[in-house]
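C-alpha cells for chain A. Residues wanted.
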C-alpha cells in the first residue's frame, strides 16, 4: 500500500518520525545525547569527505550510518565523497568558510599536527561533548571542547619479514649497508616532526640522520601502500604513519609484514574528528563524532581501519602501545594538539627533512 501514498504525505510521515526518534537504548542515553539525536534526525543527511583508505571510504560511511540509526532509533543517511589528503581537505574547509560557502565535509578528520595548524583559525564547532557520553567523552579525549580523539598513532616502520636482509629494531638500523636501496619513505617525511621533538632525537640529530637516510631510500610511497611491501618492490616503509595499514594487510591478506614501534620516539599521537562551523548538517556531524566514541563506534573504526583509540576499552592499539613502552622502559608522552603547539623546532625540522628527501629525486 505504501506505493500509493503521495510524496507529500510520505514526506510528512518521514519528518514526523525523524523529529521524534524512537531511541533503541533510551535508558542508557543521556538527556543531552537524546536532544542532539532529535536535532540530527532533522538534518537527515550528511557527507564525510576523505580518501577511500580513510575510515573505510564508502563502506565505512555505510557502517556508521547503520550504527547511528540503530543506536538512536533514527533514519539518517551518511554519504561519502572522495577527498584529498587531510591537510588539503582542512584547507578546503578554511577556504569555503572564509568565502561564506558550505564545508565540503560535515565531519573533518585530521592528524594532531594538522589540527594544531588549523587551531588558531577557529574553524570548528565547540560542543558539550562530555554531556553526551560522560564515560567516554572525557577531558583526556576532548581537546579545547572542539577536537575529539578517535584513533591513536605511534611512530614506527613496517617491513617484509620474509624478504628483509636483517631484522630492524630501530630507525638507525636502516642506515646499515644491507638495507641500502631496499626501503621506501614518504615524500613529506611522515613522522620526522616527532623524531625531531625534544622528547626524542631533537632537530640536529634528526637532520643529520635524514641526510644518510635519504641516500639509502629507494623511493617514495604512501602510508597505505602495503601491497608494494608484500610484493617485495620495497622491503620496508620508514616511517609508516600509524601501522593500521600493516595490521590490515597482515590479517586480511596474510602478507608477511611486521610492524615496529620506534622505541626511541616515545610519543603517541592522534587522529581527530571535528565539525566545521560551515557544515551543512552540524547536528548530525556532532552525533557522528559522539557515536564514534562509543563501544559500538570504536568497533566500526576497528573494523574499517584496523586501528582504534588506545584510551578506550577493548582497544587493540593499547596492547601494542603497552608492549612498546615496556621495550622503551618508559611511558610514551602525549603528542596531542596542545603538544604539537610546543613542537615548533620539530615541525621546522620536518620541513627541512622533506627538502632533503626531495633533493634525492626519489620516484
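Reply:
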Amino acid at each position: 500500500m505504501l506505493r500509493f501514498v503521495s510524496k507529500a504525505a510520505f514526506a510528512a510521515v518521514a519528518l514526523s518520525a525523524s523529529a521524534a526518534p524512537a531511541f533503541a537504548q533510551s535508558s542508557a542515553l543521556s538527556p543531552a545525547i537524546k536532544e542532539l539525536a532529535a536535532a540530527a534526525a532533522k538534518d537527515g543527511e550528511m557527507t564525510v569527505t576523505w580518501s577511500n583508505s580513510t575510515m573505510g571510504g564508502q563502506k565505512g560511511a555505510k557502517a556508521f550510518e547503520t550504527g547511528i540509526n540503530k543506536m538512536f532509533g533514527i533514519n539518517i543517511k551518511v554519504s561519502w565523497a572522495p577527498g584529498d589528503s587531510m591537510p588539503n581537505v582542512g584547507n578546503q574547509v578554511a577556504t569555503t568558510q572564509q568565502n561564506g560557502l558550505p564545508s565540503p565535509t560535515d565531519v573533518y578528520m585530521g592528524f594532531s599536527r594538522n589540527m594544531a595548524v588549523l587551531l588558531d583559525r577557529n574553524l570548528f564547532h565547540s560542543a558539550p561533548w562530555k554531556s553526551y557520553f560522560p564515560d567516554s567523552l572525557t577531558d583526556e579525549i576532548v581537546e579545547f571542547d572542539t577536537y575529539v580523539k578517535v584513533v591513536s598513532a605511534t611512530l614506527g616502520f613496517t617491513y617484509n619479514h620474509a624478504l628483509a636482509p636483517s631484522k630492524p629494531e630501530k630507525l638507525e638500523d636502516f642506515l646499515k649497508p644491507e638495507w641500502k636501496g631496499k626501503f621506501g619513505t614518504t615524500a613529506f617525511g611522515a613522522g620526522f616532526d616527532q623524531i625531531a621533538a625534544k622528547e626524542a632525537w631533537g632537530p640536529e640529530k634528526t637532520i643529520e640522520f635524514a641526510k644518510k637516510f635519504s641516500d639509502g631510500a629507494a623511493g617514495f610511497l604512501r602510508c597505505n601502500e602495503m601491497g608494494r611491501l608484500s610484493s617485495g618492490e620495497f622491503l620496508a616503509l620508514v616511517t609508516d604513519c600509524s601501522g593500521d595499514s600493516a595490521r590490515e594487510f597482515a590479517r586480511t591478506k596474510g602478507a608477511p609484514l611486521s610492524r615496529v614501534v620506534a622505541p626511541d620516539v616515545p610519543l603517541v599521537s592522534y587522529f581527530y574528528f571535528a565539525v566545521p562551523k560551515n557544515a551543512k548538517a552540524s547536528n548530525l556531524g556532532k552525533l557522528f563524532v559522539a557515536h564514534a566514541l562509543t563501544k559500538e563506534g570504536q568497533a566500526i573504526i576497528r573494523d574499517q581501519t584496523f586501528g582504534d583509540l588506545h584510551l578506550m576499552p577493548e582497544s587493540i592499539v593499547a596492547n601494542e602501545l603497552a608492549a612498546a613502552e615496556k621495550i622503551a622502559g618508559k611511558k610514551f608522552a602525549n603528542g596531542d594538539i596542545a603538544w604539537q603547539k610546543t613542537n615548533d623546532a620539530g615541525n621546522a625540522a620536518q620541513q627541512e627533512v622533506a627538502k632533503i628527501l626531495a633533493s634525492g629525486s626519489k620516484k
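Residues 57-72 form the longest helix (16 residues). The CA atoms of residues 311 and 323 lie 15 Å apart.
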